[in-house]
Specification:
The protein is an alpha/beta fold.
Length: 596
């Protein structure tokens, strides 16, 4: 498929080819309703004219802060139509986060959704006093707006109807389309400048990969990762836009199971943490069912794993396998809507056991790797060229090499223009046309890439051994009792950990022990909880090398969350912040804590 040179023209080409077909699906009065291509196109043009009438033009930064919904897409494309630069912002941002993004990007226009977003956003806007244009998709009833002038969405569209209808200049391929701020897991967020060429290079690489799946017009995506995340922004918005697919907007992570059954997606893009959660929920349901259902499920996973790994099946297994397709794998597939062609994982390394679990159940996950700085996908496994433990092969037109110290370097049209207002870090990150990713890995003889860890986050123990904390944490969180974990041990003889128990495990424990309380903090204090977690860590340690094993740990009742500042909006632990907050606890584990 030959694409235009900018995202705006790609959108109009897709809309012109299928004006009356469904494009964006929103939930209204309890059911999904479509917004057709021609309707979306008209709304983009109306809002673009409205923005121009309000004084928003070429080069201006426009923040979009809203839940995933049709208006997000419309605002994004309208901003690009007038030559403005979209700055996606997370709805979970604190007032401080919003202030940083608005001030640093020098945004003079904002499109935002209703009351929940306004509570933290509007105070930041009032303090700065630099935003000229504010458009509310829904007016923030009950929130103090002070002296801010806020234009309702409908009025902004109406302004477009009455405004100058002269044509817009098409963006150049090398114009900045968006500035996406990194999640700041290791420090202050950086504004990544992505051009139309960068994003479209990623879209074209994904299209080349998806051809092996027989992707066709009318594919269905379920959008639930935040559109402020570069992965969803490209793979969940611009990729389906380019191929004429349909996008259903999920109501939220909590309703994902229900929305999967309603949207019945054909392609699902997701971060590893959510696949881990899905696996845990499936296993919990199987455990509750027990009996023959549990036996059949275990057989489906065991036999499917052997088949996926190329091991020989016995006669009985070969006879049972097609029966398991009907009795187990088909039902699991139906929980995801029943017509998935593939599930794609990106944003962080996927644990092998999670990948093989779904593949054994007939739902292959094609793991990829990327960074916001690369728009974002760099490598991916393909349907006919995949190795489950790897993050795949470079996309079309992507060059990849490993530096002498193991750092992954990337070159190609997908690589960012640079960091907004940060020439020094840009010069350190982009060297002679190569993006220095900060990730460490290696390639096998077939060119498949394997991620070892983050260069700056690698633990070097007192013996000089390099340990990837992400790998160790990934193995530990596969245990059903463990929700989250952070391991620690730089320049120390062994690893220790902070462990957050799974809520379901805690509640089950309270019921078994006859505890009256259901409070996480009170339950987590019980010796029996520590004993159960200790057993879980021992099981996990069996799958780790001697230097990777956790020797001691501390139970934390409070989870790492976005709200308490210990998780990024993309669900990655803010490692420096967690370590700083619990440094004395972690150091104390080397003196007096109980062993795992």
């Amino acid at each position: 498929m030959q694409l235009a040179s900018n995202l705006v023209d790609v959108f109009h080409a897709s809309a012109a080819a299928r004006p009356d077909r469904p494009f964006l699906w929103r939930k209204e009065s309890g059911s999904y309703e479509p917004v057709r291509w021609a309707e979306v196109q008209r709304a983009v043009i109306r809002l673009a004219r409205g923005l121009r009438a309000l004084g928003v033009g070429a080069g201006d930064r426009l923040v979009v802060c809203a839940e995933n919904r049709p208006e997000w897409f419309i605002a994004d494309l309208a901003a690009m139509t007038v030559g403005a630069v979209t700055v996606p912002a997370y709805t979970t941002n604190t007032k401080r986060d919003h202030r940083f993004v608005i001030e640093h990007s020098e945004a003079r226009a904002i499109v935002f959704s209703g009351r929940s977003v306004a509570r933290n956003l509007l105070p930041a806007v009032r303090e700065l006093g630099t935003v000229d244009v504010m458009i509310a998709i829904e007016m923030p009833e009950g929130v103090d707006t002070g002296d801010l002038t806020i234009t309702p969405w409908a009025e902004a569209l109406a302004r477009g109807d009455a405004a100058d209808d002269s044509p817009f200049a098409a963006p150049d391929a090398d114009d900045v389309a968006c500035i996406i701020y990194t999640s700041g897991s290791a420090g202050t967020p950086k504004g990544v400048m992505l051009t139309h060429r960068n994003v479209l290079a990623n879209v074209e690489g994904a299209l080349d990969l998806l051809e092996e799946l027989g992707v066709e017009e009318g594919e269905v995506f379920l959008s639930f990762l935040p559109l402020s995340h570069s992965y969803e922004h490209t793979a969940g918005q611009f990729l389906p836009m380019a191929i004429g697919a349909q996008i259903y907007y999920a109501e939220g992570v909590d309703t994902l199971t229900h929305n999967l059954l309603e949207a019945r997606p054909t392609l699902l893009t997701c971060v590893p943490r959510l696949y881990e959660v899905m696996r845990t929920r499936i296993l919990s349901g199987v455990k509750r069912a027990g009996g023959s259902k549990a036996w059949l499920f275990d057989q489906a996973v065991e036999i499917g794993t052997k088949r996926q790994e190329g091991r020989r099946l016995g006669l009985g297994e070969r006879l049972l396998d097609p029966v398991l397709d009907r009795l187990v794998r088909k039902k699991v597939n139906e929980r995801f809507g029943g017509r998935l062609k593939a599930m794609v994982s990106g944003g962080a390394p996927l644990n092998y056991d999670v990948g093989i679990f779904f593949a054994a159940l007939g739902l292959p996950i094609y793991q990829g790797y990327g960074q916001t700085e690369a728009a974002p996908v760099i490598t991916a496994n393909r349907p006919h060229h995949h190795k489950l433990a790897s993050v795949g092969l470079p996309l079309k037109n992507v060059e990849l090499k490993i530096a002498d110290d193991g750092e992954i370097l990337v070159s190609g049209p997908l690589v960012m223009q640079g960091y907004w207002k940060d020439p020094e870090t840009t010069a350190e990150t982009l060297v002679d046309g190569w993006l220095h990713t900060g990730d460490v890995g290696h390639r096998d003889d077939d060119g498949f890439l394997y991620i070892t860890g983050r260069k700056k986050e690698m633990i070097v123990n007192s013996g000089g051994d390099n340990i990837s904390p992400q790998r160790v944490e990934g193995v530990l969180t596969l245990e059903p009792e463990i929700a989250q974990v952070l391991v620690y041990g730089d320049r120390r003889p062994h690893l220790v950990a902070l462990v957050v128990p799974e809520d379901e495990f805690l509640q089950d424990y309270a019921r078994r022990e006859g505890l009256e309380t259901r409070d996480r903090t009170e339950i987590a204090r019980h010796d029996g909880v520590h004993k159960a977690l200790s057993q879980a860590i021992r099981r996990a340690n069996e799958h780790l090398s001697v230097i990777e094993r956790v020797r001691k740990f501390k139970v934390l009742a409070e989870p790492f969350t976005i709200e308490n500042g210990m998780l990024t909006p993309t669900l990655k632990p803010r490692r420096p912040i967690i370590i700083e907050r619990f440094e004395s606890t972690l150091e104390g584990l080397y003196d007096n804590a109980r062993a795992a």
